[in-house]
């Protein structure tokens, strides 16, 4: 076979129409060999030394190699774990820059770089060939007919995120053909796209689709890594979700999904896991990075480089302080933006990427290079602002370009509706965009990604239905997962009638959904919460690829009603800019009106006092959002005005009489929704100064109008129903 010197860049396997350039970074390797395979199950057909080396990059050009070629690497060097080196040429290795990986790993002992046996076994290399059990990299044709694909570029303040799992969302969907269920193509089916459109979301946040590994200990127990937070290929869409093939077809199928969502005006945000890899700690397998250059790719313990710094709880931490590793992350991000047309990223355990030495450094190289990058800096960037290391909880501390999963929002809203005391002050901040977290660092309300539930915890239905987690099927004696409802019991003090308890649970779901959609900031809805999806109390379903995790699409009247309620809330969100402001409220009078942009009220209709905020027994309050305070302009540059809304919240378990405030003598309030019953008929009006009976554990929303004004017709949903 002809071998030409080739080029060091781009890294990976690059097809130019005539042949393929292969390029691999390894700073500490002594020799690198490229291995070619005729099929995923065959022995290697050729082993080719890469003799050219440029700035730690090994490369060669093979004019006879074609698209679809399967390949891997063997890397020679010292096996000295105590010095951080774990080179072992007996182990086939995946290319970190592979854009497609064929098939899953077949677990065998020879996939480990050492002979499994005892505690210090990793100090000795294992000489068995691992190629039979390892997946193979694929040379892929990047060509794709994007046509007139245009990124929606939805402004942050108009964004509504929907977090979902590619397989879990469609595995039981009746509108998706069986052969497409659980795949990228299934998610692009008309029935699914129609559902998204009818619901009113603007972005899907896909749980990890980078090629990942199902941990051996799970496979041995008949389980799997369903969620996918165990990446091994940062450029490759996972082949598990491909309906069309694994020899590069998964790339085109994913692109088709993005193109289909864009056609509906829906953005695609990827949940990406750059903080660690699937190779685990020193006793983990040798699949790629460890065998290519362990000392470069991973954060190692300074005084004993046999061991890994584990800020992630997954055994290792990727070394984002190393220039080549930082380049890998940035190249991956640019690839998904430019080649796959995605619109943003949610960074799992993002604090781990921000650690320069040990402490989290918000001005570290990771942020610097993203902020100056003309491609990456222009898409949506979301941090999960914590890791498992000391000082890793960094909510509110990421730089101005970033939005964050607001864990404080989640915890405060849960505590408030559970009936905990002392929450009204924090709730006020959460409802208005969390200015206490983001208002002093040149950030705006959209920095707060508001959520009640996410993939890693209870679903909304289970949150209000279970006092304790039920993870028995995970095989860890229910020790895994956090009991994140804190003895919830859905606030049912003194309620013993089963029908009343069920009604209260439904009301609590509506309370959470209404709070989420009426809060300033960017709402994120967990897929299935709008139809009461349950995981039977499992709040850590990471290993459950079955009905526990799959969305059940059989909607009884109760679940259908919750869906309609959610759709109407989302319609309100889209229709009223005062509910999704671009800037924080100022709490002072609007120029020329004498009316405050935001006002807080007690149950007696008077403005809230410092004593009221400090009262730990206070669980009821109201706020007025002035329609004159909209900070948005129309297409002609004219200031937009909106309706004025009054929001009442009662987390007491008892009913309260709330005296309604008013702006003028003629002012009246139209009831828009009351979670006691769902969306109101909208023909009900209440005069200012009148008492409104607000049920315990309930929320009500009113629209201000002049008493001589005709009441508007009920909410007309402009999105089609399915």
Cα-based radius of gyration, to the nearest Å? 28 Å
Q: What spatial order of strands do you see in the largest sheet? A: 12-13-16-17-18-19-20-21
By secondary-structure content and strand pairing, the structural class works out as: alpha/beta
CATH class of the domain at 12-138: Mainly Beta
CATH fold call of the domain at 12-138: Immunoglobulin-like
Q: Which architecture of the domain at 12-138 per CATH? A: Sandwich
For the record, give the distance between the C-alpha atoms at the N and C termini, rounded to a whole number: 58 Å
Question: What is the compact description of this entry?
Answer:
The chain is built from 15 helices and 30 strands.
Descriptive key words:
722 residues; alpha/beta; Immunoglobulin-like; 8-stranded parallel β-barrel; 7-stranded antiparallel β-sheet; 15 helices; 19% strand
If you had to describe this structure to a student in words, what would you say it looks like?
The chain has 722 residues and is α/β, with parallel strands linked by helices. Among the domains are: 12-138, Immunoglobulin-like; 586-706, Immunoglobulin-like (Sandwich). Helix content is 20%, strand content 19%. The strands form seven sheets. The protein has an eight-stranded parallel β-barrel. Strands 22, 23, 24, 26, 27, 28 and 30 form a seven-stranded antiparallel β-sheet that branches. Strands 4-3-7-11-10 form a five-stranded antiparallel β-sheet, with no helix packed on it. Helix 13 (498-518) packs parallel to helix 14. The model has no long low-confidence stretch (mean pLDDT 93).
């Amino acid at each position: 076979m002809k071998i030409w010197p080739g080029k060091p860049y781009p890294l990976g396997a690059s097809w130019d129409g005539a042949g393929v350039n292969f390029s691999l970074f390894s700073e500490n390797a002594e020799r690198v060999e490229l291995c070619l395979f005729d099929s995923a199950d065959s022995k290697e057909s050729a082993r080719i030394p890469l003799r050219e080396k440029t700035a730690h990059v090994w490369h060669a050009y093979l004019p006879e190699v074609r698209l679809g070629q399967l390949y891997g690497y063997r890397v020679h060097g010292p096996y000295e774990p105590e010095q951080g080196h774990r080179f072992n040429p007996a182990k086939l290795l995946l290319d970190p820059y592979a854009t497609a990986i064929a098939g899953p790993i077949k677990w065998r002992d020879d996939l480990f770089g050492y002979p499994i046996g005892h505690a210090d076994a990793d100090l000795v290399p294992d000489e068995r060939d691992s190629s039979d059990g390892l997946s193979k990299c694929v040379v892929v044709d990047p060509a794709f007919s994007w046509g007139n694909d245009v990124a929606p570029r939805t402004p942050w303040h108009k964004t509504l995120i929907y977090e979902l799992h590619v397989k879990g969302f469609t595995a039981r969907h009746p509108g998706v053909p069986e052969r497409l269920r659980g795949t990228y193509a299934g998610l692009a089916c008309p029935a699914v796209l129609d559902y998204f459109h009818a619901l009113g979301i603007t972005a899907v946040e896909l749980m990890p689709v980078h090629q990942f590994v199902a941990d051996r200990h799970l496979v041995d127990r008949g389980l799997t890594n369903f969620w996918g937070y165990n990446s091994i290929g940062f450029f490759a869409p996972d082949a598990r979700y491909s309906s069309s093939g694994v020899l590069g077809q998964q790339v085109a199928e994913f692109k088709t999904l993005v193109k289909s969502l864009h056609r509906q005006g829906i953005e695609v945000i990827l949940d990406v896991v750059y903080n660690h890899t699937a190779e685990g700690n020193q006793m983990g397998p040798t699949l790629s990075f460890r065998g290519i250059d362990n000392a470069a790719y991973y954060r190692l313990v300074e005084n004993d480089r046999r061991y890994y710094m584990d800020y992630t709880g997954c055994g290792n931490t990727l070394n984002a302080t190393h220039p080549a590793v930082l380049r890998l992350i940035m190249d991956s991000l640019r690839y998904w933006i430019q080649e796959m047309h995605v619109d943003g990223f949610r960074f799992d355990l993002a604090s781990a990427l921000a650690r320069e030495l040990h402490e989290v450094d918000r001005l570290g190289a990771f942020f610097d290079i993203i902020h100056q990058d003309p491609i990456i800096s222009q898409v949506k960037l979301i941090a999960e602002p914590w890791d498992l290391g000391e000082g890793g909880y960094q909510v509110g501390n990421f730089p101005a370009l970033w939005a964050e999963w607001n864990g404080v929002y989640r915890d405060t809203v849960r505590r408030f509706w559970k009936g905990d005391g002392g929450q009204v002050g924090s709730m006020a901040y959460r409802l208005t965009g969390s200015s206490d977290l983001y208002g002093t660092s040149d950030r705006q309300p959209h920095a707060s990604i508001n959520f009640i539930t996410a993939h890693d915890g209870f679903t909304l239905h289970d949150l209000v239905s279970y006092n304790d987690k039920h993870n028995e099927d995970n095989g860890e004696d229910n020790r895994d997962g956090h009991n994140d409802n804190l003895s919830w019991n859905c606030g049912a003090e003194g309620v013993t009638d089963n029908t009343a308890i069920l009604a209260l649970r439904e009301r609590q779901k509506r309370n959470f959904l209404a709070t989420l959609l009426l809060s300033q900031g960017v709402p994120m809805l967990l897929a299935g919460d709008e139809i009461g999806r349950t995981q039977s109390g499992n709040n850590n379903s990471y290993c459950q690829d079955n009905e526990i995790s799959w969305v059940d699409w059989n909607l009884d009247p109760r679940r259908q009603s919750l869906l309609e309620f959610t759709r109407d809330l989302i319609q309100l969100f889209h229709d009223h800019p005062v509910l999704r402001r671009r800037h924080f409220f100022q709490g002072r009078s609007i120029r020329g009106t004498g009316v405050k942009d935001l006002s807080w009220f007690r149950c007696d209709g008077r403005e809230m006092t410092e004593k009221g905020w400090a009262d730990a027994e206070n669980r009821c309050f109201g706020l007025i959002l002035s329609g004159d305070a909209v900070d948005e302009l129309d297409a002609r540059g004219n200031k937009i005005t909106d309706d004025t809304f009054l929001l009442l919240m009662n987390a007491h378990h008892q009913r309260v009489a709330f005296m309604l405030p008013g702006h003028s003598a003629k002012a009246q309030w139209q009831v828009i929704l009351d979670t006691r019953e769902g969306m109101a008929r909208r023909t009900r009006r209440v005069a200012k100064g009148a008492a409104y009976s607000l049920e315990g554990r309930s929320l009500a929303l009113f629209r201000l109008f002049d008493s001589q004004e005709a009441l508007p017709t009920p909410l007309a949903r402009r999105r089609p129903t399915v």
